[in-house]
Every structure is written in C-alpha cells, then in structure tokens.
Amino acid sequence: MNIVRAGFYASIATAAKLLAGLVILKLVAWMAGPEGVGRLGQFMSLMSVLAVLAGGGISAGVVKYVAEYRHDPQRLSRLLSAALWYALCASCLIGCIGLLLSGQIAGWLLGDVRYQGLIAVLAAVQLGIALVNYILSVINGFMDVKRLAFIQVLGSLLSIALALVLARWLNLYGALLALVIGQLLVLAVGLPAWWRSPYFQRGMLRMRFDREMTLRLAAFSVMTLTSALLPPLVNIAVRDHLAAQFGWEQVGYWQAVSKVSDAYLLFLTTAINVYYLPKLASTHARAPLVLELRQAYRYIMPAVVLLAVGVYVCRDWVTMLLFSADFATANSLYAPQLIGDVVKIASFVLSYVMLAKAMTRLFVASEVAFAISYLVLVYLFTARFGLVGTMYAFCVNYVLYLVFNVIVVRRYLGEL
C-alpha cells in the first residue's frame, strides 16, 4: 500500500464524512443563520475535545504500536489489553464529569441551559465513542485502509439519514443531537467489520492493566491530547474574543470560512494520518524515512495547492451552496485562509515525524507555544485589521510552525 492508494481510499471515506458534516452545516445555516453556525462551531469543538478524552487520547499511540508490534503476537496482545483498559477508565471518568457539569457546560459554551440534555447525551455515549476510537485505531495500525474506509463511509451515510430525520422532528436541537448519536452508528458498522478481518482475535477485546504498555501509551497520549485538545480550546477562546469584539454574526462568517477550509483539507489530513503515522512509526532507517517524506511532498503539496486555488475561484458558489446568501460577507476572508492552509499541510507532514518517533517533550512544548502564539497574533491582528486579521494570524502562525518543523526534522535525520 502506497500513499496514492491509501489516499484514494482515505478520500472516499473523507468524502462521506464531509458530506455528513456539510448536511448538518447546511441544516443549521438554514434554520439558524450565521449565529447558529457560530454556536454549532462551539458544540463541535466540545465534541472534538470529548471524543479525544473518551479513550484517554491513545488512538495515535495504538496506531503507532500496532504498526510496530503486528508481527509480535505477545507484545501486541499486551498492548491491546492495556489500551482497552486505559480507554475504558478514561471514558467512564469523562462521562461522569460531563453528566455532573452538563448544565454549566451548556450555559457557558452554548449560552443556553436548554441544551443541558444534549450535553448529557454526549457525556453518556463516551464509552461507545472510546470503543469506536479503539477499533478504528487497530484497523489503521494494520494498515487495512479498505476496511477502514468501508466503516467510515457506511457510518457517515447512516449519520446523514439520522440527521435528516432528527432535524425535521426537533429542528436545530435535532441536528445537533444527530452529531452525537451518529458517532455510535460507526460502532454498529465497525464492530462486525472488525470481527470479519483476518487479524481479529477475541483476545483483542480483553482488558488488563500492563504497567509497561500503559506507560508507553500514557507518554504517547500526552502528545495526542495536546494536539487534539489545544485547537478546539483555542478556537473557543478565539470565538469568544471575536464575539466580544464584533458580535456572533461576524463569528459565523469566520466559522463558515474555517469550516470550508477544514472540509477540503480533511481529504489530505486523513490520508496523512491513515498512511504516514503507521508508516513512519515502523520506519527506522534514514534513507526510507527521507524517501517517504519526499513522496509526501511530491503528491500532497500539488494537491493542496490545486484544492486551495479551486476553492478560491469558486468561493462565491461554495458559500452559497454550503450556507446561504446571508454569508456573502465571508467571501472576503478566503484568500489569507487558503494561503495558510497550504503552509499548514506543508508543516503537518513534517510534524508527524515528532509524533511517530514519540518526541514527547518537544512535541508538547511546540503545540503549546504555537497555540499561544496564534492567540496572541489573533488579538494583535484583529485589533489592527478587523475580522480578517484572524486569517492573517492563522497564516503567519503556520509559517512559523513550518520553519520550526524543518529545523526539527533536519536535526533528527542528521542524528540517524
């Protein structure tokens, strides 16, 4: 399996997930306008945070170590038993906290305590989400990209049907509820698909504490949690700042462009995650590692440039199709955002070396530092340029992050 074939299957899965997300986005834009889309972003950020916390943030660690241990049955069994135990404990803890604080979270994040029931449902399904993360990580670690794509496609199609039904029945509340329940539909598809795989063994569902493997996962978990939790938390802070400065309608314009950006980049980031994380984790020599990085830039960078140019040229049509005529003001925000997207992908390819090689301290320090720098840049640039300053901050921050990653990877390769 090479990056082209992996990218093909990942693109199919991504298209299905993208379609499901856009259906929700269109429903919310139609029912609640720019303000509703702004609040949808807050709820999706919360979902992103809890989805990672549900399994203790070990998904990338499971992918890495399954890729390393798949030819060593004894160590693989120990790893997976420890991973399932870790995920169960974390999901139960997060679920209980979410249930206890559901009212406060609804009031703080969504500005309306009527959404308390929605937050409670999200907390209650954390165990199921943790199991979904575990199953998909094991499949990804074995680089079974076709099976992974099948699960994600079918799960996304079921989520679309659910969203249409619940939105018609419960309006905005139903659309948000579909986002939560839709994650469990992936479990309904993924579990039987995993059972039928040639590498599945019943022992993979056995839980057991293993000190060595738990420590390995915990160290790796710190990196994953940092990279997964900081962006939604930072985005929450950015939305609050923009809402205070410009109002929630302006937040909706920024959120709309950000969602378009996330949507088309999902094709590339999924391919990078599905292929490069297990590949780089199992590659230890300098020459093949350099070859993989060169192939990444050969195939991925032309793709991201073409996609970014396409989105810019069609920005009026894209905004109208995905949102409504009320979002026309957002069209002026695309250019700096799309330039930042290209730089973002260039930096992501290199940053996976830190993740795959478990450079825990350096990775965490860099994630924290660049999250802070982004917030600082947002405050500085919005004060000078207005709402578009948020996009300028995004672009400049990723230029700095790319330079940092080039230095780190060059140093790592020089030590091999």
Molecular shape = globular
- Unreliable runs, pLDDT <50, ≥5 residues? none
How many domains, in number, for the residues?
1
Give the C-alpha Rg: 21 Å
Please provide the count of β strands: 0
The H-and-E topology, N to C, reads as HHHHHHHHHHHHHH
Q: Please identify the structural class as seen in this structure.
A: mainly alpha
User: What is the overall number of helices?
Assistant: 14
N-end to C-end Cα span: 25 Å
Q: In percent terms, what proportion of residues is strand?
A: under 5%
In helices, the fraction of residues equals over 70%
What is the arithmetic mean of pLDDT? 83
What does this molecule look like?
- It is a single chain.
- The chain has 14 helices and no strands.
- It starts with a helix and ends with a helix.
- The protein has one domain.
- The radius of gyration is 21 Å and the shape is globular.
- The mean pLDDT is 83.
- α4 packs across α5.
- The chain has helices at 3-54, 59-69, 73-100, 102-110, 116-124, 126-141, 145-195, 211-246, 248-281, 286-313, 315-322, 334-356, 360-385, 389-415.
- It is mainly α.
